[in-house]
Specification:
Two copies of one chain form a homodimer. By secondary structure, chain A is an alpha/beta fold. Helix content of chain A is 36%, strand content 23%. Chain A contains ten helices and 13 strands.
Chain lengths: 302, 302
């Protein structure tokens, strides 16, 4: 029974990093978010792929208990393809090629059987499509987390603000938050988010961890210190999926649980970037995750 | 009885930030470091000023119990002057003017009565002068903390490495650490520092806090979330001075105490940047500090 709906692109990636290169691997936000969520909850993916999308990748999902009945396969269509090169800067890929293919003009359609799910993760898509996905649910989910991209913040800032108003959490990274609210101060940006009828603001800071703000409290989460990052692709998507998946598992929305969820999300993102595509996550166990979570407690202790 | 020796420049600053501007205020690293240390220990300053250095600023120190007998006043000389503008970026000042004056070619001379002190803080100076200061001590202090600047890392990287080898802690910020060890990874940079016969590596990350590494452990310290930074000048110097001052007070060098010292150092730096020069620190009490320290515990908790 799907309790976590993950809406977003699925794609095939070519990736180059200082540690090697891979072609035609499973990628895009819904892959990472659903896989990360599956450590804690029962996700179902709402997305679209072309005829070229390998069955093997659908099996990758179903073997994890991820429902794929919301993935529409377009006969004769081609899957989203992205090619990125991190050779020079592991933080920012150089995009060599993006072919939108079937994702262009895609409007997510939430299947009947997913509409009563209480946890919803919406990946980076046009803000209007994000709101459309939310509105297709039977009732407002217990928790909706949206991701976005600087592209949408630049081109449709007012609509991104609408998404922040109408959903529970829009995950921004620090540069996106500064850009959207035109301030250098993350604290000020967080205050603006909270004014938009949000109970919590979570800002991702990459290698510097993540911060959470409520009207009266603040949490600063460390990141897990990795000596080598093999492939940073999907770290933010894993963070979003794991955050929602953990909250779905605990099924009690409060700040204390958000703090734990952020740490689990950081831990799962840290495993993810130790390999290409989902390679490393696929061999990561709950024991590995709990061990790293315990390390995070030692890392934050004083 | 001076137990903490602070060696470094004293100066007079003109500073402009989005919150206003000040002229001729007490500045440069030794001012901030000694003042911050004085919350915990008995600092003495080793520095040089010109005839134009106001007696009022010497009183600022002595009223805090900071010994000024190591400050050499040059008859007819002019004090170091710096003028900076943070109007556009609160993280990086635009230096409008630096007049080295008496600090040019200054070689620190540790007064007889300071040479048995067990805690030594050496501000950003040419690496050779830093080592010279260290060698003037009767014996190796219990703890020596040095600061540096990207300028020395660019111009004399080998000598900066010598300072890391011969002292206990060289405080680098994240961009300096990446530059010195030619790596994007702070974890790798920290490993390199530890190889240079250092027991701990501490890397400052500005608004993202600070991290500590030993061979087997890692600590990630949050920063205190400030909505407004009035004047960032001296934050790093306060961090260094408070770190050393706290360790001098506790007088037991171990990782657990370093963790606490880093939090106190961050707290004191956070008070400092809420005002120009030492204005805000001068009205900050130990109660204020303990209160913010307790907040930091809540900020890191999960």
């Amino acid at each position: 029974m799907v309790n976590t709906v993950v809406v977003g692109p699925l794609g095939l990636d070519d990736i180059k990093t200082p540690f090697g290169s891979v072609q035609n691997v499973l990628g895009a936000s819904a892959s990472y978010s659903a896989y990360a969520a599956s450590f804690f909850s029962q996700p179902g993916i709402v997305s679209i792929v072309g005829e070229d999308f390998p069955d093997e990748y659908l099996n990758t999902f179903t073997q994890r208990g991820i429902d794929v009945s919301g993935i529409q396969k377009v006969a004769g269509g081609k899957t989203l393809r992205w090619s990125g090169d991190y050779s020079y800067d592991l933080n920012v890929p150089k995009t060599l090629k993006t072919e939108l293919n079937v994702i262009e003009d895609y409007e997510p359609k939430i299947p009947e059987q997913y509409r009563s799910a209480e946890f919803l993760c919406i990946g980076p898509m046009p803000p209007e499509s994000q709101l459309s996905a939310l509105r297709q649910m039977d009732k407002r989910p217990k928790l909706t987390i949206c991701d976005t991209r600087d592209f949408y913040i630049k081109s449709e800032p007012q609509k991104v603000l609408d998404v922040i108003r109408e959903t529970d959490i829009v995950l921004l990274n620090d540069s996106e938050a500064r850009m959207l609210f035109n301030t250098n101060s993350l604290v000020k940006a967080a205050r603006e988010i909270l004014k938009l009828d949000s109970e919590v603001a979570i800002i991702k800071k990459g290698e510097h961890g993540a911060v959470l703000f409520t009207d009266t409290t603040h949490f600063s989460a460390p990141s897990y210190p990795l000596e080598e990052v093999v492939d940073p692709t999907g770290a933010g998507d894993c963070f979003a999926g794991a955050l929602l998946g953990y909250m779905a598992k605990i099924n009690e929305i409060n700040e204390k649980n958000f703090r734990k969820a952020i740490i689990y999300a950081s831990v799962i993102a840290s495993f993810n970037v130790e390999g290409f595509s989902l390679n490393n996550l696929s061999s990561t166990t709950m024991d590995d995750i709990e061990k790293r979570y315990a390390e995070m407690q030692k890392i934050a202790e004083f």
